[in-house]
Write a structure and sequence with these properties.
The chain has 608 residues and is α+β, with helices and mostly antiparallel strands. Helix content is 33%, strand content 28%. Helix 9 (370-390) crosses helix 10 (416-436). The termini are far apart.
């Protein structure tokens, strides 16, 4: 639809500003209303109450004072009054001799006349509202693009250009490049935004050549397109755009604005100057060409919106993927129903609980910020989780400087105990390597690990409002308690009886060894349970128990459990002192005469 947006009158006038500063053009335009004095300056007025600043702001020329002049449109002439605080003079351009400039403090100019402050020319122009053309979605569908090949080629390149853009800023610049290629008559393109306060902002702009001045969109056009959700074009009459000595942004005689479908407050803006002889002597001439330009901009905007939406979904998926362990993420991506496979269910699982050693003292003694300290802990937690994930485990939880992983879900794993055990040994090995390297940022830290096996409820656990992938059951508490017991026994990895039994039955276990340590009886439990230590292969570098001593300890332990403590002490006498020997020694020392208690069942009491 074509319609005028208003008609020319003496009530308003345009003041055009243009400056070339250090090779760069800057331009702006101000609308003045009859009888309303307005200040011209370099800095905006903060509020109506303050006397500092101006309503007509041209910030690019530092030779213009913050409050330089007061301008009043009187209907036929513009009254210009230099303020006493202005540092530089105002020079009036002689209408008959343009090279003649005379300083004036209080003067009047008419339409087409100019004055200069610093490097900036100000020209008074008649304000003629533009002709407006609008297109609805159905209108655009029926349009036939004239000379479509350049536009098709530009659109075809858009998806790949967007895909290869590393960030949002370059993404927008690629879009603007395509717009300028597809609309040869356009001199500038921009992504614009309208704020809740109706302020117009330029997110990004691109000129066809470097000689064009800074970009300033038409407020009326942008407001019309983005507030009323229409595809809008404004055409200005020839008389409003007489040739100037230097090109200005206001020298463009057409502009279009297309709202983006994925953002109600953003739109694409194109503006240009029509070829000589093709300006608006009749709207039909422009309409035939602008039909195709508008349809192209609309299509480019829709493609950009769709691809930007897809990109945002990818970014969200990438972020959310970090909240899921790879094995869970793969299950979700394999086409399985997420709601179905994450529904809580009971199944046998193996739980690994790993806690840092030395972290509390490290935080207390740290001279760096808490965030820098956390960065170190994050690297340490990465070591734990990387090994859990490498063995196809699920990250169940983080508790401060501790991590919990489990196996046996979402798919059953017949070798879940081996996977958990190998993950634990790999974590231990990494910490040993850190400690062996002088000056390594992760040296000085150790970890304790507990592994337990048993039934548990797994899947999506939590409340109706918030849930996470986790595991629930006594096996979790048992793994955590085993990890805590590594401190008392001074060993890196403890395993429960179920894990020990399974590993004992494996014929091929070259990746690790096990040692029975003791039977412990927790408060409230009728029977003692066996706990064991998971050891690396014989000969692996770092603190390690040689195989001969491992076997000697188990022989001694059999005597201890049988109540023959004298033979235990005889065998263990030649054993190198370590945590489990000290643990059993403290229990023996606490007994009367160093003999087993009456009716002793082989267990060493421990607190919960």
């Amino acid at each position: 639809m074509v319609r005028p947006t208003g008609r020319a009158s003496e009530e308003t006038v345009l003041l055009l500003a243009h400056a070339r500063i250090e090779g760069t053009d800057f331009a702006s335009e101000f609308q003045l209303t009859r009888g309303q004095p307005q200040r011209l300056g370099r800095m905006a007025r903060a509020s109506a109450e303050t006397d500092f600043g101006a309503e007509l702001v041209f910030p690019n020329d530092n030779k213009i004072s913050n409050n330089h002049a007061t301008l009043t449109w009187e209907g036929t002439q513009l009254l210009v009054q230099r303020r006493a605080s202005a540092k530089n003079p105002i020079l009036v351009v002689d209408s008959k001799e343009p090279n003649q400039l005379r300083p004036e403090d209080d003067f009047r100019i008419g339409l087409g006349e100019r004055f200069v402050i610093g490097d900036t020319f100000f020209t008074l122009k008649k304000h003629v509202p533009p002709i407006e053309m609008t297109w609805g979605a159905k209108d655009l569908e029926s349009l036939v693009i004239q000379d479509p090949i350049p536009k098709i080629d530009a659109l075809a390149a858009l998806p790949e250009m967007i895909r290869l853009s590393p960030n949002e800023s370059q993404l927008v610049q690629k879009l603007l490049e395509v717009l300028l290629e597809g609309v040869p008559g356009a001199e500038c393109a921009a992504l614009v935004r309208i704020g809740s306060d109706d302020a117009i902002g330029v997110i990004s702009a691109r000129n066809q050549t470097s000689e064009l001045p800074a970009f300033e969109p038409s407020r009326q056009l942008v407001t019309r397109a983005l507030r009323e959700f229409e595809n809008v074009c404004h055409l200005w009459a020839d008389s409003d755009f007489e040739e100037q000595d230097t090109p200005t942004r206001t020298g463009m005689d057409w502009a279009i604005c297309v709202r983006l479908m994925d953002a109600n407050n953003e739109g694409l803006y194109l503006a240009g100057r029509s070829p000589v002889g093709f300006r608006r002597t009749g709207t039909e001439m422009h309409a035939a060409k602008l039909d195709g330009d508008m349809k192209f901009a609309h299509l480019a905007g829709n493609i950009f919106s769709a691809l930007r939406g897809w990109r945002k979904l990818q970014q969200k998926e990438s972020f959310l993927a970090k909240l899921l362990t790879p094995v869970v993420r793969h299950a979700a991506q394999s086409g399985q129903n997420i709601e179905q496979f994450t529904t809580p269910k009971e199944c046998p699982v193996t739980v690994l609980f790993c806690d840092l050693r030395g972290s509390v003292s490290s935080v207390a003694a740290s001279k760096t910020s808490l965030m820098q300290t956390w960065a170190t802990f994050e690297d340490l937690l990465d070591v734990m989780t990387d090994e859990i994930c490498t063995m196809d485990g699920v990250i169940g939880d983080f508790q401060g400087d501790a991590a919990m992983g489990f196996w046996g879900w979402p798919q059953p794993q017949s070798d879940q105990i081996e996977r958990a055990s190998r993950a634990a040994l790999n974590i231990r090995k990494k910490f040993v390597e850190f400690s062996s390297k002088v000056g390594h940022p992760l040296s000085g830290f150790a970890c304790g690990i507990g592994i337990a096996h048993g039934p548990a409820v797994t899947g999506r656990l939590g409340t109706r409002d918030q849930a996470k992938i986790g595991v629930f059951g006594p096996v979790v508490n048992r793994a955590a308690r085993l990890e805590g017991a590594t401190k008392a026994l001074s060993v890196p990895i403890l395993i429960d009886a179920a894990v020990h039994k399974h590993l004992s039955g494996l014929q091929n276990r070259e990746w690790g060894r096990i040692r029975r340590l003791a039977k412990v009886q927790a408060e409230g439990f009728a029977e003692p349970v066996l706990i064991g230590e998971l050891l690396p292969p014989d000969g692996e570098p770092g603190p390690n128990l040689i195989e001969e001593n491992r076997q000697r300890f188990e022989v001694a332990l059999d005597h201890f459990l049988a109540g023959d403590w004298k033979r235990y002490q005889k065998v263990i006498r030649v054993f190198p002192a370590d945590g489990p020997v000290a643990f059993i020694g403290r229990f023996i020392a606490a007994q009367h005469d160093g003999s087993p208690p009456a009716n002793w069942n082989g267990g060493i009491p421990v607190s919960k």
